[in-house]
Design a protein that fits this description.
Strand content: 5-15%
CATH architecture of one domain: 2-Layer Sandwich
Number of helices: 10
Order of helices and strands: HHHHHEHEEEEEEHHEHH
Shape: elongated
Strand order of the largest sheet: 3-2-7-1-8
Helix content: 40-55%
Distance between the termini: 127 Å
Structural class: alpha+beta
CATH topology of one domain: Alpha-Beta Plaits
CATH superfamily of one domain: Protein of unknown function DUF881
CATH class of one domain: Alpha Beta
Length: 318
């Protein structure tokens, strides 16, 4: 029996010749395309270093383009800001009209002052009959032109606070005093015998209007400062207190307090001062001899009964 001989290997063959895929992964992990791109970038970088700086024509071209863009932008801005002829003409017409109207107002104001001085002179010189002077003085007192002093009744209405959870100024809309509330109380005071009435020192006349603008209450276009609205009525305190208690006014105040949390207070005062509303605008005039009997100025009647909570809810809904 013969012994086995040594193993003969074929020259030129690698031991890992059968592991080509593993060899490719370990020896060249990157794709050949990456290597080509790296070589191309290196060549481009070397060629760029060879010719440093941009050429003079390219720099001149860029400078010219920048100058053209700046000039075009400047021209566009000037054209936009330049006043148009039509707009300038319209503005000139408006300025001329404003100046003309201003001159007319100044002329009429001077004439009004002159006529007022003439009227005051006629009254003070005693040229008018005493009966006419007495009637004029009574008219000025009744229509609220003159200030008055005397005792009377005071009614205060204060915005509710939504159950005490917020400040009165931030209360819900239905917890705030409205123009209709002030109107009703004023009418009831007139009916109770008031001779002169003022709301927050704004004197009421026969032509006064109590309205609202948003959340603000206006008296003759003058806004009232809340949240408390003071209604002062000059007259016989006892008579007015009894008349107001017997009217629908007291029940209406109770309704405001119970349903909407609007606080109210009714008291008497022995020394009130109500400012005058100024001279009223004269709309027409006639001779005292042909005037006949003068109508007696009457207070605003209360009309229907006091508003109810249903009326207020309907008003909220428009």
């Amino acid at each position: 029996m013969t012994a086995p001989g040594p193993t003969v290997r074929t020259p030129g063959r690698r031991p890992d010749e059968s592991m080509t895929l593993l060899r490719e992964v370990t020896e060249r992990p990157l794709d050949p395309g990456y290597a080509q791109m790296a070589e191309r970038r290196a060549r481009d970088r070397q060629s760029g270093q060879a010719g440093t700086g941009r050429s003079v024509p390219s720099l001149v071209t860029m400078l010219l383009v920048a100058i053209l863009l700046g000039a075009a932008t400047t021209v566009a801005v000037r054209e936009l800001r330049a006043p148009q002829p039509v707009v300038a003409q319209g503005r000139a017409v408006l300025i001329e009209q404003i100046q003309d109207r201003g001159a007319q107002v100044e002329s009429l104001s001077r004439r009004a002052v002159s006529l007022s001085s003439e009227v005051d002179g006629l009254q003070s010189d005693g040229l008018l009959p005493s009966a006419l002077l007495d009637i004029n003085e009574l008219d000025r007192w009744v229509n609220g032109s003159l200030p008055v002093r005397g005792p009377g009744l005071v009614v205060r209405l204060t915005d509710g606070s939504g159950g005490g959870l917020v400040e009165p100024g931030d209360a819900p809309a239905d917890s705030r005093v409205r123009d209709a509330d002030v109107q009703f109380v004023v009418n009831e005071l007139w009916a109770a015998g008031a001779e002169a009435v003022a709301v927050n020192d704004e004197r009421l006349t026969s032509l006064s209007a109590i309205r609202n603008a948003g959340d603000a209450i206006l008296v003759d276009l003058q806004p009232l400062n809340g949240p408390t609205y003071t209604i002062e009525a000059v007259g016989d305190p006892e008579k007015m207190q009894v008349g107001f208690a017997r009217s629908a006014g007291l029940g209406f105040l109770q309704l405001l307090s119970a349903e909407y949390g609007i606080e109210n207070d009714v008291s008497t005062s022995e020394g009130m001062y109500l400012p005058g509303a100024g001279a009223p605008t004269l709309r027409y005039a006639q001779s005292p001899r042909s005037a006949g009997a003068r109508p007696t100025p009457s207070a605003s009647a209360s009309g229907a009964g006091a508003p109810t909570s249903q009326d207020r809810s309907q008003e909220d809904n428009g």
